[in-house]
Write a structure and sequence with these properties.
The protein is mainly α and about 210 residues long. It is built from nine helices and two strands. Strands 1-2 form a two-stranded antiparallel ribbon.
């Protein structure tokens, strides 16, 4: 049982370390508005992951590679990421002072961040695929233990994202990147567009 837990926890954490749309959204928001604002995105991301975990735990296999639901998820995620990336690329720019005040960008509410994080997690087909694959390997494991694994993974997602937000929103980090926020926004926007193109390409390849 301990070996299985270490396998599940290790695979999940390694997947978590891979930077994706959630990571870039959290870092940008924390740099601009502080970790408390970014925590809304963190909670939304954790809830989105929790929904996919719940579906995988329940044994619902509708979201599988090649299925209509998975294809719809791929295209919806691609369009959402492309929209986010384009918004950042066409932004007139944001300046920030070391006290955390910003100019040129509205301060998002906590609830708005939660909705953005939830959408980012739910519209990421890699999340659905990862959890479906992981729970398929646990078919012989007691359901109660699978549920505990699910709770553990949601907690780790939330804890890790909050840690990223706290690090990016630290005063020393903000001071270091205060003069480069426009470049960070452009890089973030370009990265999200590239991810969107990659997801769309996969969707076309799976037709």
């Amino acid at each position: 049982m301990i070996e299985q837990f270490l396998m599940v926890a290790g695979a999940h954490f390694l997947a978590l370390l891979s930077p994706g749309p959630d990571f870039f959204l959290i870092v940008r928001t924390a740099l601009l508005h502080g970790w408390r604002r970014a925590s809304g995105i963190c909670v939304g991301v954790a809830l989105g992951n929790g929904l996919f975990i719940g579906l995988a735990w329940a044994g619902l296999s509708a979201i599988q590679p090649g299925s209509p639901a998975f294809t719809i998820l791929q295209w919806a995620g691609s369009l959402y990421l492309a929209w986010l990336g384009w918004q950042l690329l066409r932004s007139p720019g944001t300046s920030i002072t070391v006290d955390g005040s910003t100019h040129g960008a509205p301060r998002p509410g906590w609830g708005q961040g939660l909705r953005m994080g939830l959408a980012s997690a739910l519209l990421n087909p890699k999340n659905a695929l990862f959890y479906a694959s992981l729970f398929s390997l646990l078919a012989g494991t007691p359901r109660s233990l699978q549920a505990l694994y699910g709770v553990w993974m949601v907690s780790v997602v939330l804890g890790w994202d909050l840690l990223v937000a706290a690090a990016a929103g630290h005063r020393a980090v903000v001071e270091r990147f205060a003069r480069h926020l426009r470049s960070i926004e452009r890089v973030t926007g370009a990265t999200l567009l590239l991810i969107a193109v990659g997801v769309a390409t996969q969707a076309l390849a799976n037709r």
